[in-house]
Amino acid sequence: MKNETQAKVRPWRAVLLPLVAALVLAGCATAKVEAPTFEAPAQFKEQAAAAPSDGTWTRARPAEAQPRGEWWRAFNDPVLDKLIERADARNTNIQAAAARLAEARALARSADADRSPQVGVVAGGVRSAGLDRNLSPKPSTLLQAGVAASYELDLFGKLSKASEAAQLDADAREGLLQSTRLLVESETAQTYLQLRAVDAERALVRDTVEAYRDTLKLTQSRQRAGDVADLDVARVETEVASTESDALTLDRRRAELEHALAVLAGDAASDFGVNTDEWATALPTIPAGVPATVLTRRPDISAAQKSVMAAQARVGVAQTAWFPDISLTAGGGYASQDLSDLFKWSAKSWGIGALLNLPIFDGGRREAGVQSASAQLDGALANYRTQVLVAFKEVEDQLSSLRILEQQADVQSKAVTSASRATSLSDSRYRNGMVSQLDLLDARRQELANRRQALQVRSAQYQATVGLIRALGGSWDVKVAAFSSDGQRVAAR
């Protein structure tokens, strides 16, 4: 009889033991979460002519923890320093990103808590009739008080991978916070530098207005003396009015920039103001040979990488749905029909249990879950690759802009010098009656146009420099160039 019983049990063991072993091995074989990498050129295209590379390529891993530095201090402008510090502390976009990071971290802690034993105090009472073992119709009361505990065994990594995915989501949020901070800092710098450029242009235009007014007074005096015709007076009056209109346009532009700066700094536009003196902000220049691997510091690339890793972890979570959930439960306390006897030793009660849950037929729900997680992973990988490609594009854009603007600044400086000399000669000849007033006005218009163009080129250089810093994800070792108030380069330091 005993042998027959053993013979009946062995086939079940022969089936169950290999099945359990296969499930354990399958759980251990779930794909490992790995950080994606991208092939980064050792050198940017725009720098190839100045510093040829050796043709090697580098596998670069984003390093979101790497400090990005107080890059704005390279501009050597105390007003800019204070504005960016203010924006870092008060900008609402940064505050919103910080709140989303705090939420993601809380969700990560919640997911990690599922891996720990859950313990709680339970108490309750039930009054019923006909539910006891004797099926007595007489109502009775059952009071209970005690401690309950439960713990889900994570044999197949379901809980650990869910916790890992939540933590990676929090890391991605941290990268997005840093990306938002860098964006706000760069926008603050660009807006401030635009404002300084407009201030310099306003001063130039208003100086020109004063020069035209002096010319108008001289022309009116000569007209009263009969030396010039009314047409000459009308021409100068036209130049005065037209240049004053340009000055008012710049006034409006300055007000808009100041209001935008107020929003970036977290202040109301009505209570915000920027008083500026002569524009002497230094212009950092990128050194030759900055490697393409500096893109590893870009926080948006880091955030995209973490999102890919979180999607990988969620694929693993979806795959564990094919394996059973095993939970252990335990409880202990007291149970009594009388409140006065509830906490007596004779009323003690306890219990332990185990629960295994393995769905057999779910209509394809688990397979759909795996497919959905895999599709999210594909989307995250595509987004990561896009982010990398955009990063290279942005750096190359700014490098090409700086290269061309450098050439344009040199040419424009020569144009300003020539136009200034032409105005001086025309003024002297006009006073001596050798040229007409129309020639003098034309020379002044050309000089004003060239000086304004020089200021605009200078402003574009600042914008491209800040754009390059943002595209690179932070600061680098810089050299600084200095300019005069009319936008011409005067020194390097």
From TrEMBL:
Record's subcellular location: Cell membrane
Keyword tags: Coiled coil, Lipoprotein, Membrane, Palmitate, Signal, Transmembrane, Transmembrane beta strand
Major localization listed first in the record, in broad terms: membrane
InterPro entries recorded: MdtP/NodT-like (IPR010131), OMP_efflux (IPR003423)
Source organism, top-level taxon: Bacteria
PANTHER family: BLR4455 PROTEIN (PTHR30203:SF33), OUTER MEMBRANE CATION EFFLUX PROTEIN (PTHR30203)
Family: Belongs to the outer membrane factor (OMF) (TC 1.B.17) family.
Keyword presence, Chaperone: no
Name used for this protein in its record: Efflux transporter outer membrane subunit
Positions of the UniProt region annotated as Disordered: 45-65
Organism of derivation: Variovorax ureilyticus
